[in-house]
Amino acid sequence: MDFTNKCVWVTGAGQGIGLQVALRFQAAGAQVIGFDRAFNEPAYTFRTVVLDVTDPIAVEQVCQEMLGQQPRIDVLVNGAGVLRLGNSDELSVDDWQACFDVNVSGPFYLFRQLVPVFKAQGQGAVVSIASNAAHVPRLNMAAYCASKAAMVALNNCIGLELAEHGVRCNLVSPGSTDTPMLRDMVGGPQGFTRLVAGLPEQYKLGIPLRKIATPDEIANVVLFLASDLASHVTMQDLVVDGGATLTA
What is the CATH number of the domain that holds 236? Predict the structure, then answer.
């Protein structure tokens, strides 16, 4: 998987899966531009651009600026995502809207700017980070599940639009992954053991591979789908969750 001199954009690159994806592309030779609302690590080895993907005006301005400097994009990774917890009768409207703003509208705003570029190039790849929560219902996660399912549908519609132009659009749907988001949700690494074993009161059967994924394991699949090794793969969703949705 050689991305030498390829231009790769990664949203959500400030931490977690997005950060690891950006680092892996850079290690594979790519010129990486990482986008996020904030970059809080001490140092980043790739170019960073502060961007709120929920702001369509900012997305347009930043995209045009980046394309003015480098009028080509080889890979787009939609990695920005948020999780807001709450059942349907408890969840605030703001939390519902936040999930859809970041997880669905953000990629849509980027697609509006970049689909014409991909069409003109006649090649390229998109990989969107969804979730296994897009495939199964979860208690306390109505907004997250619904928004990630919408993201899957959006990505595949764009994939169909771009197929005749030689551009592939695929998804990676991680399960429980050792990220700041998961640690916040389960109360730190001590909560990982319960996730692996299963939470029957929440209708979760556990993880057959008996471990939480690392961000690097998710990044492996992202790079594969963006690479020429997946040259005949488009509109597919690879669930990377250690078998947790085996009954889905």
Answer: 3.40.50.720
Are 196 and 89 part of one and the same domain? no
203 is catalytic: no
Secondary-structure breakdown of the chain: helix, strand, coil percentages, each rounded to the nearest 5: 45, 15, 35
Domain that holds residue 195: 181-212
String of b and e for 190-220 (b: at least 16 CB within 10 Å)? ebbeebbeeeeeeebebbeeeebbebebbbb
Which residue from 229, 109, 248 is spatially nearest to 173, judged by alpha carbons?
A: 248
Rg of the chain, C-alpha, whole Å? 17
77 neighbors 10 (Cβ within 8 angstroms) = yes
What integer pLDDT is reported at residue 164 of this predicted model?
Answer: 98
Would you say 132 and 173 are in contact if contact means Cβ atoms under 8 Å apart? yes
Q: Is 117 contained in some domain?
A: yes
Number of domains in the chain: 2
Q: pTM (2 decimals)?
A: 0.92
Residue carrying structure tokens 């969804």: 130
Please tell me which residue in 44, 109, 144, 203 is annotated as part of the active site. Answer: 144
pLDDT in tens, 89-124: 999 999 999 999 999 999 999 999 999 999 999 999
